[in-house]
Design goal:
The complex is a heterodimer of chains A (108) and B (118). Chain A has 108 residues and is an all-beta fold. Chain A is built from no helices and 11 strands. Chain B has 118 residues and is mainly beta. Chain B contains no helices and 11 strands. Chain B is globular and about 40 Å long. Classes of the chains: A mainly beta (108), B mainly beta (118).
Chain lengths: 108, 118
């Protein structure tokens, strides 16, 4: 089974900070990786697909990079609306889609 | 706009079954696969499987094989997820989700809380 591991699990940051979240796949998934943002009581929201493509309507301060097994989500300048939990998800192995454990971005 | 609207919260006893509906609108119902994803409290989302409303094909995660069934009603643009032999560990918010591309989700239902408790 493919495993998705995120780090850190919690991140404390201030408004305006540059934030980086890492996702590692246990197998090569090429660029078949997405990032979601989830706020309490809400469904996940798609931010990035194909590792680095920004979903329509998502602010340009969000960016993604990586391929193979190592990926990164970066928020260039953290805004109040960005405090949330972020999940990566692989879709290379379509018969076993899998999410990372999540990174909660908190206010420092 | 695309909308996925799910049925309401359920409370079930261990050993029972639950059936959740997901009604799609805003696009041609048979165009996109619909996936089911659940999320236990404080846990990561967990993919359960998908169904293709266009041809009825389904794929279930191995973890749920044998106790999960997806069905659909194209006339009502609705898919259903039936999970049986419920345990307390099945307490979670269940989402239907879909999108143009295979394998990731632009569109999500609002979620259905299923509580399994004696």
């Amino acid at each position: 089974d493919i495993q998705m591991t995120q780090s850190p699990s919690t991140l404390s940051a201030s408004i305006g900070d540059r934030v980086t979240i890492t996702c590692r796949a246990s197998l090569n998934i090429s660029s078949y990786l997405t990032w979601y943002q989830q706020k309490p009581g809400q469904a996940p929201k798609l931010l990035i697909f194909r590792a680095s493509s920004l979903e329509r309507g998502v602010p340009s301060r969000f960016s993604g990079s990586g391929s193979g097994t190592d990926f990164t989500l970066t928020i260039s300048s953290l805004q109040p609306d960005d405090f949330a939990t972020y999940y990566c998800q692989q879709y290379y192995y379509y018969s076993e889609l899998a999410f990372g454990g999540g990174t909660k971005v908190e206010i420092k | 706009q695309v909308q996925l609207v799910q049925s309401g919260a359920e409370v079930k006893k261990p050993g029972a079954s639950v059936k959740i509906s997901c009604k799609a609108s805003g696009y041609t119902f048979t165009s996109y696969a619909i996936h089911w994803v659940r999320q236990a409290p404080g846990q990561r989302p967990e993919w359960m499987g998908w169904t293709n409303p266009g041809n009825g094909n389904t794929k279930y995660s191995q973890k749920f094989q044998g106790r999960i069934i997806f069905t659909g009603d194209t006339s009502a643009s609705t898919v259903y997820m039936d999970l049986s032999s419920l345990k307390s560990a099945d307490t979670a918010v269940y989402y239907c989700a879909s999108g143009v591309a295979l394998g990731y989700f632009e569109y999500w239902g609002q979620g259905t809380l299923v509580t399994v408790s004696s």
